[in-house]
Amino acid sequence: MTAEQSWFGHPRGLTILFLTNMWEQFSYYGMRALLVYYMTKQLLMSQGSASLVYGAYTACAYFTPIVGGIVADRFLGKRRAILIGGSVMAVGHFMMAFEPLFYPALATIALGNGLFLPSLPSQIGALYAKDDARAGSAYNVYYVGVNIGGFLAPLICGTLGELYGWHWGFGAAGVGMLGGLAIYISGQRYLPEEVRSPQAEAEHRPAPRIRFPRKTLLLLLAIALSVTVFRGAYEQIGNTLALWADVGVDRRAGAVTIPMTWFQSLNPLLVMVMTPPLLALWRRRAAAGKEDRPTRRMAVGAAMVAGAYLILAAVEAIGGPAHWLWLVLFFVILTLGELHILPTGLGLFARLAPQGLGATTVAAWFLASFAGSLAAGMVGTVWSRTGHSSFFLLLALIAATAAAMLLLTDRARRAVANSSKSG
Description:
The chain is mainly alpha-helical. The protein folds into two domains: about 10-190, Up-down Bundle (Growth Hormone, Chain: A); about 210-265 and about 275-423, MFS general substrate transporter like domains (Growth Hormone, Chain: A), CATH 1.20.1250. It has 14 helices and six strands. It has helices at about 10-40, 45-75, 80-95, 100-120, 135-165, 165-185, 200, 215-235, 240-245, 265-285, 295-320, 325-350, 360-380, 390-420, and strands at about 5, 10, 250, 250-255, 255, 320-325. The strands form three sheets. A two-stranded antiparallel sheet has the order 1-2. A two-stranded parallel ribbon has the order 3-6. Strand 1 and strand 2 (about 10) form a beta hairpin. The longest helix has about 35 residues, at about 390-420. The radius of gyration is 22 Å and the shape is globular. The mean pLDDT is about 85.
């Protein structure tokens, strides 16, 4: 593969993968921005049922890629998995335009996502030679695509859904998915040739038994449980918090009323804005010998999210519709907490994985996200059975519990680190 440059000094294939992923994320977040509103306003589902469906759907979005990655590696190959998965997802988005097909549509999107999502980033490494220094920053560039797509989706799909009809918003999500497929197909000449993976070759040879150190396993289980609890509060941003943006927030800005779905663009926008200075701060602290331990940093992030929900609880306790700037402040604090806990946790799982069990260990991280999304759906059913201030206090308590669990886990993490050094 030639290192032909076109964007940020990287091979053109990275641009193709970046744009493909951006439009796939546009379709996913566009549909998700409308989902809870569509269920409660159009399908007239109870709030509790809508929260459960939302939680189950987002959970499946984390679970199906685990199975889909295995199918892609062993049977379909990456390119075929992307083409099939993307096409299935597009069909699912268009199925959302028909009310009787609501549940089959959600299942179709989740299945397509399982094939599509793990097969795209796995092609990045083959764009670079082993000694290519640019490979280290390739995933950072690629990750921006997730947030650009997530930022644009509520603005476009959400606006179409609110102003012109829900089905227009769902249709726009389907068009975005087709756009991503078109980019991927048109850019095939810039992508690496698909070759048999070392894992597939290893299947034909006896593999040595790989042992997972007991202390490491217990540590990862503790972190996974903490993250599961944390997501019970965090995943409300597209669920009950979206409902609050509709009924509990004064969205007037002068003579204009801000569409309720637009607030869901704040999280990916803030991720893009806040990540560079936060990484720079952590680099300076590391250079000064003041780097935070990963589990402590994660605990700080969970505590920040707890603080964000405490602000909403206080605002609701005052009474009356809250000014929309309070919701903006909430997203600023929540996103800062998210950047402390979720990327750090994923990196910790990857680093602590024994050689030969890297993919399995990272898959366990996504299983924690799956369980946490299911928990969030169940927590969301409380929204209609209690006052809004009390509900936000409950979410703050859940996030604070996760922070306490992570602090307790920090001692175990240090024990694992010390045993690794002595070994």
